[in-house]
Amino acid sequence: MAFMRLGSKSEAFHREGQTWLCTTGLVSDVTIEVGDMKFHLHKFPLLSRSGFLEKLIEESSSDDGSSCVLSLDDIPGGGKTFELITKFCYGVKIELTAFNVVSLRCAAEYLEMTDNYGEGNLVGMTETFLNEVFGNWTDSIKALQTCEDVTDHAEDLHIISRCVDSLAIKACADPSLFNWPKNATSGQNTEDESHLWNGISPSGKMLQPTGEDWWFDDASFLNLSLFKRLITAIESRGMKLENISMAVMYYTKKHVPLMNRQVTMDEQVIETPNTSEAEQKDALEEIIGLLPTKKGVNPTKFLLRLLQTAMVLHTSQSSRENLERLIGNQLEQAALVDLLIPNMGYSETLYDVECVLRMIEQFVSSTEQAGIVPSPCIIEEGHLVKDGAEMLTPPTLVATLVDGYLAEVAPDVNLKLAKFEAIAAAVPDYARPLDDGVYHAVDVFLKAHPWITDSEREHICRLMNCQKLSLEASAHAAQNERLPLRVIVQVLFFEQLRLRTSISSWFFVSENLDNPEHQNGGNGCVLKPRGENVRERVSELEKECISMKQELQKLVRSKRSWKNFTRKLNFKKKSECCKPKDQEKQAN
Fold this sequence. Notes:
By secondary structure, the protein is mostly helical. It has a domain of 143 residues: Potassium Channel Kv1.1, Chain A, CATH 3.30.710.10. It has 27 helices and 7 strands. The chain has a 5-stranded mixed beta sheet with strand order 2-3-5-4-6, with helices on one face. It has a two-stranded antiparallel ribbon with strand order 1-7. A hairpin with a 2-residue loop joins β2 and β3. 32% of the residues are buried.
């Protein structure tokens, strides 16, 4: 830590309560009041160094030369700073440090202690020392912290801007090029001489900051106003937005204690020590404005926790909307558990489905604006499995996330059908290669809401495309008594189409195998028995299709035959029967 001693005389003052007396032996002829403190001093040492005090003493002095009383309640730094100034005027040693130089510089300017009132006056001395302070990271942080007490004066003298610029340059530079100690402040706002000096510990070892987050902790000790200025300056100098985001995250967790607590259904508002809810609310609203807006820079999990905390603290609507917009733009990165936000409003639902709906709509809007809209198509199950990695696009990931979310909130008996449908329909059809997820959510909703009417059941089932159900989901739906009969018939119809497609493909294979050009393989092996086996399997599939068609006709005539029909069809066996043939087809 940089320091400088000024003056040479021994201590010439002593304190009695809130009164400071000069021990020179001369009778005091001026009393200066600074707050609750009184200084009994002499005119000549003061007016010889301060233009402001010279004018004040001349205006207050009487012709008889009696003692005068002056008030300096507005002096920057208060009584503690004026005590040091008094010692300087009397030639007593004072020590300039990063903790007192800002207030002394401001007070010296206030008192007009320029070189016009003595060579080597306090304005010049403190300005020279400030330039030394700005060359060191730790001292600059400490000096900037002390600006909080004399903000207006420090602004007028551009001390804050110079200090912030100095810190921004160092934060953006390679820390290994400088002798900067890591986390040297650690919140210890004292003048203990055991501190680090120029990056050297008392043991003589040089401490070097490591990693790109080396400055986060030091910056977190600043008040929010100064932290905002530092972040803005660092960002303007080209710091990576990811580092800016991490610094804001670090600061948030330190100054908004509610962020560090798990918000549960039974514990929605948590009292935190040291920081009131009002202070946390104000801080959070400011912090949200510091977050980079570029997609993917801020961790989605952090943003969702920030949103929950904002709801608990009842921050402004604009701040919550900004968070929802940030989350919505990168919703594909969210985890299901983080979307289960407890309802803080007046709605009867357990979870805040309105908030999630707005984020889904924001995602769809941003995706369409970016032109990420594939053409709608029906995806075959086998093709989906084969090209699964290619199908994991942001819209597909969000569709899977939303379907899982619907399945989680569907058991809530207070969840209205219209709201369930709105969330499910918010995801465009092209985002779901298969509708197994939405079918599962619909089934959970129907089970939890058995009292809804038949027309409402029909309506909710329109959310899923029976043609986009997998074999397993189709088998389950065909035996699901909670579904309307029309939906079950559709499932069976598309299942039949799928079987017909399989039969056609097997016929194609069979004809190729019977072709004389394909009788022998490259190694002379005869493939005829294989073709005969394929024709037998195709014959079995034909019989199954005929049987299914007959049963469908019976089902349309009488709904009462449903249970016997599903038992006779035995879908599990049919699906298992198809799997080996599909595998053989792929092998060929």
